[in-house]
Write a structure and sequence with these properties.
The complex is a heterodimer of chains A (117) and B (116).
Chain A: E1 4-7, E2 10-13, E3 19-25, E4 31-37, E5 43-50, E6 53-57, E7 64-70, E8 73-78, E9 87-94, E10 107-108, E11 112-116
Parallel strand pairs in A: 2-11
Antiparallel strand pairs in A: 1-3, 3-8, 4-5, 4-9, 5-6, 7-8, 9-10, 9-11
Chain B: E1 4-5, E2 10-14, E3 19-21, E4 24-25, E5 32-39, E6 46-52, E7 60-61, E8 64-69, E9 74-79, E10 88-96, H1 98-101, E11 103-106, E12 110-115
Parallel strand pairs in B: 2-12
Antiparallel strand pairs in B: 1-4, 3-9, 5-6, 5-10, 7-8, 8-9, 10-11, 10-12
Classes of the chains: A mainly beta (117), B mainly beta (116).
Chain lengths: 117, 116
Amino acid sequence: DTAVSQTPKYLVTQMGNDKSIKCEQNLGHDTMYWYKQDSKKFLKIMFSYNNKELIINETVPNRFSPKSPDKAHLNLHINSLELGDSAVYFCASSQVVNSGGSNNEQFFGPGTRLTVL
Amino acid sequence: AQKITQTQPGMFVQEKEAVTLDCTYDTSDQSYGLFWYKQPSSGEMIFLIYQGSYDEQNATEGRYSLNFQKARKSANLVISASQLGDSAMYFCAMREGGNYGQNFVFGPGTRLSVLP
């Protein structure tokens, strides 16, 4: 009954390769996110999708491309991997609200630890 | 400019004592939400507590309470009766009202260590 699942949990790959991380949520939420957590534990939002539409696209290299086939899935494709891409990537989801004042906490997946050699 | 500031990179507390983790935020929105998450060494992100900008009372969830001081733009987390299992990273986060209210920003985190 996992709410937000990510695969794979660990990903070790060589520089220059292309890889994908999959994310699925079964909570019926409208919005999904990708975060990157660096070695200092700093969490930074990369993308946000609402009903398959891109809402937030922070300053992320265009080697990173999110793809949302439906509102329950948001996959992350990374081309030409670099050493600096090594991090933990979290997928999350939340329900959309019309104002910032309502509680719609994000539910996080378990994270994918990406190591680029 | 940092939207969420957590000035304590690391904190120690004795088991069974209370501890306060600081969080200050910066926003010009009237409508926003404040969240605290816990990340144990196993890595998962666990939601702890939420405070809405219009909520007049401080939020409480079991041993967690949020000391919300709107005028000072602070949202400190208070953990009462600390337990060894509370040792973890704690993140303060804010959701602002733009983009359907979906713009989440996280602070740099505070590493809490509970001593036996």
